[in-house]
Write a structure and sequence with these properties.
The complex is a heterodimer of chains A (about 400) and B (about 100). Chain A is of the alpha/beta class and about 400 residues long. Chain A contains 10 helices and 26 strands. Chain A has 3 domains: about 180 residues, FAD/NAD(P)-binding domain, CATH 3.50.50; about 110 residues, FAD/NAD(P)-binding domain (3-Layer(bba) Sandwich); about 80 residues, Enolase-like, domain 1 (2-Layer Sandwich), CATH 3.30.390. Chain A has a 5-stranded parallel β-sheet. A 5-stranded parallel β-sheet of chain A has the order 9-16-10-11-12, covered by helices on one side. The chains are: A alpha/beta (about 400), B mainly beta (about 100). The interface between A and B is medium-sized, with 19 and 15 residues.
Chain lengths: ~400, ~100
Amino acid sequence: MSHIVIIGAGECGARATFALREKGFDGRVTLVGAETHLPYERPPLSKEALLHGHAPKLVSELAQYAEAGIEVLTGVTAESIDPAGKIVRLSNGVILAYDQLLLTTGARPRPFPGLSGDNHRIRTLRTHGDAVEIRNALQPGKHLAVIGGGFIGLELAATARKLGVAVTLVEGLPRILSRGVPEPIAAIVADRHRAEGVELLCGARIESLSEDGDAAHIRLADGRTISADMIVVGIGAVPNVELARDAGLAIDNGIAVDEHLRTSAPDIFAAGDCCSFPLSHYGGRRLRLEAWRNAHDQGNLAAANLMGEGATVSAVPWFWSDQYDLTLQIAGMADGATLTVRREVAEGAFILFHLDETGRLIAASGIGTGNSIARDIRLAEMMIAAGVRPDPDALAAPGTKLKSLLAA
Amino acid sequence: MSNWVEVCATDKIDEEDVIRFDHGGMTFAVYRSPDDTFFATAGLCTHEKIHLADGLVMDDIIECPKHNGRFNYKTGEAKGAPVCVNLKTYPVKVEAGTVYISL
């Protein structure tokens, strides 16, 4: 019986296992995950799960794995792959022989440079276990320092404020969200955080981090020291490529895959946060995405190609972030835009459409309360995928139905 | 015994679109299909309790604005992960240019 082994039990790996069954694969499927939980959704970890102390929201229940005939090995890591012999050695001593292998090893938080040792008050947020530890420290009246003004850090700051925790957020660059979020939208997010009482320090160079029994400390280059009950470092993620690299697979800012998610080794695919892939709508440039939707979609795509469908990565990158009652959503990649037009959607809600020099829509970024911009961003995503060159004035006019521009 | 509740005038919902309708402490999504027929479902996505009326209608499909979970709004059928629980649907009638749903 044909055996597909999937290493990495997050959204992507879990989705791929079920997608294999949905597509009629009747061979053996084994999903291997390092965490002790069944695969769960990570986006709530910086939001509702942290706020309410929820148990992890499972992607699927245990009974669904049993029903689908999927073997799940939790608390087990893969130690090595032998691509020639087509075997995987696991940390529990088991050796799995595979016919095809899918690597969905994900990413891990980028460590703060130079920080070493066992820190209790200086943490990162990636797993449910991390969220539990952080939540335990976030009692009302405590002080949290966040390093990094990206999605994770800002979402964590917003959640901490809801819990009555004082928050200082330190960002090294002149503004928050400088990776991929246009300035006018980042400014609204920054203003909201300040209005909610977050102390936002941008352009702050950190000299060192330290902790003692009572507090953790950030020493800034300008001589200031910020002391807090806990520091959470949110400065990005690094892909988990070691297993693939040690097996001789090509690495290029992640496990390098082609447009079918194939690695450089026969019968080994990779998908999700761990891989870099060519982005068809943007001239085939190689990109790695750390996003729930990408993990979900590539899990489906990898399953299709494990079944020999030869499907091609053609998704438009799509991200969202929830902070307070604000949601921001971004579709596409805005760098390279030569024209940006603004469309008012509702009170305090707007979308920026980014077009390249040929007039093609390459990205859309929106912000508003609740899901006020979601529908238009979704339509923008479809327009980007379709490669349309919409009339900028029509994009900006609130009276224009975006659906009518899909065929432009 | 059916309990017909007035939703709105037919021209308040565009073709291939959806509106949110709250009644009696519940929330619904009321649709007008591209072939000009009206439908109604429970208002919240079965995955994360997001208002579906903020989502996009394409043909027979409503797509949740948060995680793109898809349902056939005519039948309530969940069309695949991340949604696996079907939406409840409600009978709809149109009389004298007004849309009613049966609760």
